From TrEMBL:
One Gene Ontology cellular component annotation held by this UniProt entry: ATP-binding cassette (ABC) transporter complex
Matches recorded under Pfam families: SBP_bac_5 (PF00496)
Name used for this protein in its record: Dipeptide-binding protein DppE
Domain Solute-binding protein family: 71-456
Length: 536
């Protein structure tokens, strides 16, 4: 999912606010938390960013929840059975979970939700994740109607899903908010306003969101009294605020107004030995998307010149002392293949050649590009979010590209995340500083994005060889061939500079040790507050 540039290992985090109220059980009931960027929306069919998915993950619930280390845990499904060929899944649902409007959550809510998401008229940029569910690809392409999707309700408490092919990561998908149910009455009642504010959204998860108007930078989650497992929800309130500048959020942490604070580069070095210092590994890669519908970004030599002009180690240091330079698109520590990290299989000549700073080679590729383009100079803008780290990354890229490639003039355009995503999604940009977090712990979550027909292929990269490798990985019954296809696909997109990987962030935070059981997963919707509590 799209994220700010500062965001597989799961971790139970420590974090307690001076304003927390006491309870008879010896715990405090209020948590004060921050996020780096604003909410894009609360319509699970339409959002694409980590902040929004974290909100959905804590206010909604699907068939499963993802616990520590992305372990699949019980959600609304009390029983799951599969056919021998793994193409038919039958879920028996709880009969005691209600929506915040009082309606019972039923199997039909899943049917409605899934059909709505794959319906082209909804405009979901995530509908491609339904690929493998019967008829999903044809529906997304407009060739079949949404009611032909391989999902049906048998009574109120039985959901049957039919697949076109076995999906190795199907259970992980079911824990991702895109596959959660939706209340049809609410969606139709609010129409275009659905999911654009707290008041125009209904909830069935551990918490209910209040106070988000659609554009403000503070809101709260309150315990959902209708939630089926409310006895295991310890917090009454989580107060959220958006903090885009690390120095500001750390000051709020020191004054007791925040229970956890994201640290900037200097603070992360100074505080690493202090109690409460917490490193969070992310399944995130920050990279450049170059709009290939525009010149000169359809020129491969120009893209290679840009990549080779970037010292990734210096860039990583400029945005945070814990970021790691990227030589692969997929991050390390996300997926293991036969005892080896998947990225170790990807690394090779292509990843080294095109993701390593080399001033002379960068200038040589720029000279070739000048001849092919018939131009001695190029002007373009790098689009970034307006948080501190994004701005710093943009400034570094501007400086190193202009100093290395004479005749290339760069402007940095830093704007609010929601606006930036709208620009990128509509193709209204030159180069986009993009952060993507895996939706689930598998490299296909990254490699899917840049296939020719993917709705989130904003840069319009198109390569038949790459498309075939990704497609073949989804249908082969051989696990060995699947991994081989994925490795070759990743090597291919790097060698052709379909995207330009920059770095993999590790976030440094200060978090109060009295906060327990905040589950963080680098992939998917990052935070799970269901079992969190604050000790006295």
């Amino acid at each position: 999912m799209a994220v700010g540039v500062v965001a597989l290992a799961g971790a139970a985090l420590a974090a307690c606010g001076n304003n927390s109220s006491n309870s008879s059980s010896g715990t405090k009931k209020t948590l004060n938390w921050m996020d780096k960027t604003e909410i894009e929306g609360m319509d699970l069919s339409k959002v694409t960013d980590a902040t929004s998915f974290t909100q959905l993950n804590n206010t909604m619930e699907g068939l499963y929840r993802l616990g520590k280390n992305s372990k699949v845990e019980p959600g609304l499904a009390t029983k799951t059975t599969t056919s021998n060929d793994s193409k038919t899944w039958t879920f028996t649902l709880r009969n005691n979970d209600k929506w915040s409007n009082g309606d019972l959550v039923t199997a039909q809510d899943f049917v409605y939700s899934w059909r709505r998401t794959v319906d082209p008229s909804t405009g979901s940029q995530y509908s491609y994740l339904f690929s493998g569910v019967k008829n999903a690809d044809a529906i997304v392409a407009g060739k079949k109607k949404p009611n032909t999707l391989g999902v049906k309700a048998e009574g109120k408490d039985k959901l049957v899903v039919t697949l076109d092919k076995r999906i190795p990561y199907f259970k992980l998908l079911m824990g991702f908010p895109l596959f959660f149910p939706q209340n049809q009455k609410a969606v139709e009642q609010y129409g275009k306003s659905y999911g654009t504010s707290s008041k125009t959204t209904v909830y069935n998860g551990p918490f209910i969101q209040k106070g988000w108007t659609g554009s403000n930078l503070s809101w709260k989650l309150v315990k959902n009294k209708n939630y089926w497992d409310k006895k295991n929800v310890k917090l009454d309130t989580i107060n959220f605020s958006v903090q885009k500048t690390p120095s500001t959020d750390y000051n709020l942490y020191q004054s007791g107004k925040l229970d956890a604070a994201l640290l900037g580069p200097q603070a992360s070095k100074q505080l690493k030995n202090q109690k409460g210092y917490t490193l969070r590994k992310t399944s995130l890669t920050v990279y450049l998307e170059m709009n290939m519908k525009k010149k000169p970004f359809n020129n491969e030599n120009f893209k290679k010149a840009i990549s080779l002009a970037i010292d990734r180690k210096e860039l990583a240091n400029s945005v945070g002392g814990t970021a790691e330079p990227a030589d692969t698109l997929s991050p390390e520590n996300m997926t293991e293949v036969n005892g080896k990290d998947y990225t170790d299989l990807v690394r090779g000549e292509a990843t080294k050649q095109f993701n390593t700073y080399n001033k002379k080679q960068a200038q040589a590729f720029w000279k070739k590009a000048q001849q092919e383009l018939g131009k001695k100079s190029v002007n373009f803008a790098i689009l970034t979010y307006d948080d501190d780290a994004s701005k710093k990354a943009g400034e570094y890229l501007q400086s190193t590209i202009e100093s290395t490639l004479k005749g290339v003039n760069v402007r940095v355009q830093s704007i609010p995340k929601k606006t930036a995503l709208n620009h990128a999604g509509s193709g209204n940009y030159d180069v986009f500083l993009m952060g993507w977090t895996a939706d689930f712990s598998d490299p296909i979550s990254f490699l899917n994005l840049n296939t020719s027909k993917n709705s989130q292929n904003w840069e319009k990269y198109s390569d038949p060889t790459y498309d075939k490798l990704v497609a073949d990985s989804k249908v082969t019954p051989s696990e060995t061939k699947r991994w081989d296809d994925l490795v070759k696909a990743e090597q291919r997109i790097i060698s052709t500079q379909g995207v330009t990987p920059l770095y993999h962030p590790e976030e440094a935070w200060m978090a109060r040790p009295s906060v327990k059981n905040v589950i963080y997963n680098g992939a998917g919707a990052p935070y799970n507050f269901k079992g969190a509590y604050v000790a006295n």
